Amino acid sequence: xxxxxxxxxxxxxxxxxxxxxxxxxxxxxxxxxxxxxxxxxxxxxxxxxxxxxxxxxxxxxxxxxx
Length: 66
Hints:
By secondary structure, the protein is mainly β. Helix content is 11%, strand content 33%. It has one domain (2-61): Ubiquitin-like (UB roll), CATH 3.10.20.
């Protein structure tokens, strides 16, 4: 699948859902905020969110600090 992730084109074969993208990128899901086609997603929405070629994802990593 061809996706735009954080503004960069990416080819991720075999992915169909947001959790599959997270896994393919090797990211820790508990530390992420994700926007799909300019719509912020609650983590409970990830599994049911089907992706299509050309979709845009913005993936932000949450970092604690002080």
